[in-house]
Amino acid sequence: MNLQLPRSPRRSAFTLVEMMVTLTVTLIVMLALVTIFEWIGQRVQMGRAVIEVSGQLRSASLRLQSDLDNVTVPMRPFARIEQGAGYFHYREGAGWDGTGTVEGDVDDVLCFTARNDVEHFAGRYTLPNTGTVRISSPEAEIVWWAQYQDLNQDGALAAEESVSRVLHRRVLLVNPSLNNVAGGPWFTLPNALSGATSYNTSNQSDLQTLAQHLRQVLNEIDVSMRFVRVVPSNNQMQIQVYANSLADLTQPENRFLRHPMVFRTGGNYQMVPQPGRPFAIDTNPASETRLEVIPLSGNRLGEDVILASVLAFDVRAYDPTALVASATGLGVLPSDNAWTPTLAIAAPISRGAFVDLFYSRRFGTNWNAAAASTFSDIPQLKSGIPAANEQPFYDTWSFHFENSGPATNGLDDDGANGTDDPGERLTAPPYPVPLRGLQSVLRVYEPDTRQVRQATVVSDFVPE
Questions:
Q1: Which of 55, 139, 229, 315 is deepest in the core (most CB within 10 A)?
Q2: Cα–Cα dist 176/247, whole Å
């Protein structure tokens, strides 16, 4: 007997349940792959952002280090014109970097002359009678500062423009050969720009034109210049523009932004008197040519920007007498939140730190004079700084302020400390001591990945 088992029916396709299981597994695998690729993409983006912002920060740091390494003048007052060594000026703003947030001190300013014989400084100038001329020089006046950027150039900061600051580096070439060979100026305003012979200082339209001309010159000419007022007749004024030499720049009144001329309150313009000591950087909110309104603009917008999204540009001077205090086993400096005069006096462990100028003002009535150091207090009033609230600065100063004074007459006028001693001087630098070192902290923010990076530049000025 031949018995055959019944055959099961042949299945020609997947069942609905199998299809759904297969589709679900496939979707899970695809979702996992998408998530992995998204994570990898984010990592790559963050990595690229880190590399990019780190590269920009490194480039700016190296540039600042190079500039400071090539400063032309010895870091001590009083500089003498006959030495032709230029100058160094560091202004300490009201901010400080110990606020406990990533956004710190961004209102410090560095100005100085530098020489680079290997890689010359390059720039240009544009005048109606010459067009645009490219120039270079081994010497330059250099200014570093941070501020918000007026992107639409409407003269006001909109909400979206007040988010992040940029770090500016303005380079003004030292080229006195541009001056008239007979000792006259390089050119005269307003003639060089409009053909007019003079400005009527009692006329609102002329004062507005003067302000526009000054901003145009500062924007179109990468040359260190000084402005000399000439008044040929009543209410009529000309401006003679001279290209500076290093000897000229020894005198503070000849430096960048030291000669404001036109103020504006509302819609009214007014001529301001010739400025006097201490010839601080022009930051008056009424000035038409103050620091905040002279970054390169127009078709040159951004050419002087060296770093974007800046959270801090904090400059500190080395103070060999500043107290380092002990707090819970750690050394704290005057720039740290934990440092106080009381702690420094009670638990000092050493001396010497990088500090903000006039850092005692942070503590108000809680300041104790026993914690004082070289740069802790207000600048010398003989420098011409009018009050303790004035922003302090370190400057190599100029001995020409003493011309024809008791400190140069060869006599012991005060009967103490010998002939022409410091007590007989008419003026004094804000801080009449050598500057041994400088620390500059650069902190930036990368908005796409919300990362913060920081670099520190330390410059040693002790003579070898």
A1: 315
A2: 10
